[in-house]
């Protein structure tokens, strides 16, 4: 497959003005490095020839040649026979265009805060042994169970009923994780070009599916302290959408929890507009110190709701098991949307989860106490070391949504990598651009590691403020002294990546 190509005009637009206190070749190299590292120019994309970019930027051929040479030296550009100069990443640098931080490429000693997921719980080995013991009853078939293991469907249905949404097992479909479940729901509901209501910020792994469907996004804001429900209902009314994708339960990334009254108002607006809700409940079980009873599941307020759940947060992401809870009348369309790319979740993994959920349908008290301690340690370290950063302490979920004093999230993310810290910048979560002041900081690691992460973040922020981001670290500088972050910020053109994250 030929590499995608960026025109010289588009690259010149992304690079922006090149005049400034630093040499022009350095500004071009720094800008392109930031664009590649933050996913706005995706890995594998062919950049324009030096001659074409020279004309587009209005610079000398020597300037552009020098910038490309710096990028090749640092591993951000690779020359391929027949493909010209192709965007790449240095060894050990995580690909920000996919956000899949599951490989040994993460350097040793690096603290990875891009993935908001817990390690496996106690009892995993026993659950795996129980699954193997129960597997003979499934070995005589093909193993492709489009709706899932019946016993697991019953346990999931019982949990919905316990939470206040009466559910039968035939209303549940087991999937290969919540990302797949949400994609199935979107494909079942949307035709190319349809409008969809989407929160911003939101969990970004839905973006590829919506991009493939060429969906038109009507974005609704989620503020640090909750939803602007009047604006949300007005947007729903005017959207002409077929579906709304919502995260009302300890919203990722803000941690907000939508109240029953707010759910009722949003549900009424969706009902009047005849819009189906696709509700991501991946973090619904992750209440930490929320006072009072949990709100009812969104489907209890809006019957035309497809609920998507997952064991990745409450139990373990390595199982890759999720589910869809939907009215029975929608099941044929959901199964039809599923078959082209997911014909059944692994049976053994389903049996492992069955054993775990019979013991604890959500997180255990021990894991909850550990998360509270980690959250409070991270919050305390931020207040002490970085008092200029602002955040709302959530009562559930797995991360803090942190506001920077300046719109330099992409620059801070890049500088943090050089300090041995991987974090996700706010623009990744943006459904309609922006969020340049925000970063997401999960509290899923031990408190001591989180305190160290804050120290590395502080150094990164100090380097960006001083204009020295990118001057050291495993990826090395992008040219002579100077900063991709500082250069980009000075021009007022921060990056706006929208690549997906794994968790």
Note down, in words, how this protein is organized.
It holds the Pfam family GntR. This is HTH gntR-type domain-containing protein. In the C-terminal section; belongs to the class-I pyridoxal-phosphate-dependent aminotransferase family. InterPro entries: Aminotransferase_I/II_large (IPR004839), HTH_trans_reg/aminotransferase (IPR051446), PyrdxlP-dep_Trfase (IPR015424), PyrdxlP-dep_Trfase_major (IPR015421), Tscrpt_reg_HTH_GntR (IPR000524), WH-like_DNA-bd_sf (IPR036388), WH_DNA-bd_sf (IPR036390). Keywords: DNA-binding, Pyridoxal phosphate, Transcription, Transcription regulation. By secondary structure, the protein is an alpha/beta fold. The protein has a domain of 219 residues: Aspartate Aminotransferase, domain 2 (3-Layer(aba) Sandwich). It is 39% helix and 13% strand. The longest helix is centred in the C-terminal third of the chain and has 21 residues. The C terminus is likely disordered.
Describe what is shown at a glance.
This protein has 503 residues and is an alpha/beta fold. It is built from 17 helices and 15 strands.
Ordered list of secondary-structure elements with their pairings:
Blueprint: H1 8-15, H2 24-37, H3 50-57, H4 61-74, E1 77-80, E2 84-87, E3 111-112, H5 124-134, H6 150-163, E4 172-175, H7 178-189, E5 195-200, H8 207-212, E6 216-223, E7 226-227, H9 229-239, E8 243-246, H10 260-273, E9 276-280, E10 305-310, H11 312-316, E11 322-325, H12 331-338, H13 347-359, H14 365-385, E12 399-403, H15 409-418, E13 421-422, E14 424-425, E15 438-442, H16 447-466, H17 484-491
Parallel strand pairs: 3-13, 5-6, 5-8, 8-9, 9-10
Antiparallel strand pairs: 1-2, 4-11, 6-7, 10-11, 12-15, 14-15
